[in-house]
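Figure 2 data, in text form.
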Amino acid sequence: MSTITSDSNQTSDEPIVTSLLVHKPLRYPAAWWKSAVIADVPGLLGVDELNWLSAQSLEFAKAGCDALIVRPARLNLDEQGQVLADLIKHYRRAGTKVIVRLCGGLSEIDLDPHGTFYDEERDQATTLKRAEQVFSMGAAGLDLGLLPPSHVLDEHNQHHPWQPAEDSDSEESGTSDEGAPQLSPRELQCGRDDPFALLVRKLHKVAYNHSPGAIISAFAVDSNEPTFDRHLEYCLYHHLRDDTLLESPWEAQALRDRIGLALTRRDRLGHVAAWRASSSFTELTYASDPTAWFAQNAPVRRRALTLLSLSLPGAVYIRASRLLKLPWLEGLRTYAIMSEEDRRFARNATTRASLLRKSRSLGVGSLAWVSGLDWAGPEVFVQAGANTLTVLNTSDHPIEVPDSYLPLMTSREINPTEDDDSHLLNPDECGWYAFPEAKPVQAKYSDEELRKIFRL
């Protein structure tokens, strides 16, 4: 981390503005997944749901989504695979990729979590077979969903031990696919200790052999678990989402600490951060901690936190049910509390934020904390990245951003105009602002005088 302070000519009575660099720009930002906006479709999907989604490909593309996650748990790929192949084809034509969720630990709160596999997913061997099938259809990646906490996974392995079949292309068999990633003895031992980790390694090999460039992603239920760093280091997920923002207190310093830690853990391994600001948990669960962001004024804060997540470097996951009305969710608690106005605002805000995010390279740029501003106290979260200032008002009073900063959008005004008050951020609101353009200053010395001074 490095720190830059304001002009040294300031007097002692003037505030000292400081920026602390916490993340450097990506050196190789070209890969789509390093800054993607991904819509996560909830539920265990079958023929009807996938056909409905196929007809909505343009809607998700217009909302600014780079990819869509679907979980075809109720689809028999041997007999009904064309349904998924057609969906992938429709979204590819719209410029959107499809990631397929093949298994996972837990599902939506409204579903009864009874294990890692559901319906047609069955077991590890079936997962590997289905991975080959979806890659042959053109899937851009695999997602393993919400990984079980370590105690749940240990209990599951004890009662339902996975016995990996002999791997025909492992080092133990003496044969290998040329160029494919191999399992080292250390990795094989890790697989024996943690069968789920071995499954992930095998899925990496399937992806490499059938669809080079495809990604593997998952969601860790608790980033403080002792297993989290092991998953991050040994399973080599392209995206490992966590609860950094999901359960954060609504405090500027707490958000800085959580975001900074998430970036530091991944930067040291060369990984890309993957952010998720909202879930069924944050919408339905009573917050035992009164400082949790969703404990008060949750609808307004959710908009602000989503906008903050879209300003961060890395990938961003958004609940698809917040963008479109998904018919199979009718009657579920998470669906009932969403108004059509809320979905329309979320869709328009995501569209605008995604365009700005791409045009300003927010997803692959640097990130720095800014402090010492006379208009933003310590209870206001301020960050700078890719020539954009992001301000999140976690205080209990309104703040006014100086007129020199051009408003790009706020969690209240999607398309700011000169007539609105986009420089004013009420409590629990977030805004993006462009830095003022540097104005040319008259040189103190002429070129001839400079040559004399430096004896050139």
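Caption note: The first strand starts at residue 2 and ends at 5.
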